[in-house]
From TrEMBL:
Family annotation (Pfam families): Dimer_Tnp_hAT, DUF659
Superkingdom to which the source organism belongs: Eukaryota
Chain coiled-coil ranges: none
PANTHER family, per database record: HAT TRANSPOSON SUPERFAMILY PROTEIN (PTHR32166:SF63), OSJNBA0013A04.12 PROTEIN (PTHR32166)
SUPFAM superfamilies: Ribonuclease H-like
Domain HAT C-terminal dimerisation: 508-590
Protein name: BED-type domain-containing protein
Residue ranges annotated for the DUF659 domain, each copy included: 153-299
Amino acid sequence: MLKALSFAGCFEHYDKVSFFISLPRIKLGTFKRSLFEWFGASMDIHEHGVRVGKEKRRIQCKHCGKQMSGWYRLKHHLSGVGGDATPCVQVTSSVREAFRTTTTTSGSKRGRSGDSNANEQVWCSYPNCLDFSSNGFREMMMTVSGRTIPDPHGSMFGEVLKEVEDHVEKVKDSWAVTGCSILLDAWVDHKGHDLVTFVADSPAGPVYLKSFDVSDIKHDSEALISLVDGLVDEVGVHNVVQIVACSASGWVGELGESYVGSKKGVFWSLSVSHCFELMLMKIGEIDSLGEIVEAVNMITDYVNSNPLALKLVRDQDHSHGLLDIAVLSSEFEFFMPYLTVESIFRAKDELAAMFASSSDWNKEEEDIAISNLVNDSGLWETVERVLKCSSPLIHGLIWLSSANNNQHVGHVYDNMDVIKESIAREFDNDELCYMPLWDVIDDVWNKLHSPLHAAGYFLNPDAFYSTGFHLDAEVAIGLISSLVHIVKELNVQVKVATQLDVYKVREGCFNETSQADQVSGLSPAEWWAEKASQHPELQSFAIKILSQTCEGASRYMLKRSVAEKLLLTRGMSSCEKQHLEELAFVHYNLHLQSCRAKLSEEQ
């Protein structure tokens, strides 16, 4: 019934108030690379571990209690990068990020770890009042980074600043066609300050906008809305399609609720990875995930600390996932428990065979305990039930994140339906088993997703022209509300609505371009750019929607310590403040370019 609906006719009766909505790459030389490594997080490894044992030769992690052979292994344990140390599942994201930075930038030789600690202490002891032109400042920065740092007033820094500014301007120029999404990265520092960094993301790449200390206004909704509105005005109301938040709780969640119906006509949505995280948390509560993870972690630690056991597991095809946990979860750390459980589950038969192969495996008390776990059929039945619902979510998000060149809006709506159907199949379509899980997913998704997702589903030709496309009220409402808020001019809105009817019935240029061979091989936005020039108003509208990301700022792993130094350093003159802002601007934008390039290579 709805598929026969005329969008031009529907648009004439649309009530804007009735819907619940909120609205050439730089080459990194040695100097530029050093700029975004200058502000590496200051972390002393000795604050995160303690010596234990009779001879005090082993180190125990203060976060999870795991013991290891030395400080070097503790650093890799906390960072989740390199070596064969098991990644810590209890460490906070900020600590993991800090040690990941020092681990990856200080080289793989153990002899350099001590130097890194000494360098970190230099930054901590440096006076708060910074003189950027002084020899002391450059000496301090050179000590921290291990590189010769040019005078921020000098020509070399000026050239880099100019090049970064030119790059940012080119990205901003592209927003007139693709639009952009503003991403929030909000956190509380170790002294209790509420800080936030804003990034604008688009197909041309992410750019750093600004950072703010909102500690004094976090309970003032009007002040927060004014701050965000000011940023939207600065970027351009016609350019901003949506704001993607990092959380649904705290002041960010309250701001999202207050921003619904904002006069700016900008959508507010939650990062899709955080939505998935909330779903997994609720699903984990159903099956007591904590107890399962505890048992599986005992097995994992045993395997990783026993060379022969680790070799046996590595030799098995199904155990390969165990070795890639740190890599797979580097972007989504909340995956860690589930990836660990899934990897061990895949290797359970090989582990059971290992213990059964010789009595030598059952001599020690630990061997017996692990053997009993591996052969506990009740444990694996529970693990299998958890994986039947968690694995479709995890692998669905991994697929969404790794494909589509960061342009997710055309795929996320359909992807959620695919995930739910996959969960149903895992339980042999038994409603008593899968419906409680569907209810969890729907409860989170219905509260937090955006009308843009439904509009993207309709405008994705691969989905729309498939036999499985379903146009229900939610999709129709999402499409029309997106039209009203993205296209500001009434006469253009009417043209787009009329052209949507042509797209719907495959008339004109859509008759040929809707064929499967014309759709495959192109992203949805590329398809509209190449195939729909006869309908420029609809083409422009579709490209702006389909060019948006559904991910938040977390995927870019911004160093929050940079914003903390920028916002919380006291006693600076206006000149010094300007230079620190320029350094942060260069650092963040070089980091974002590097991170985006790395993500593109992995896709």
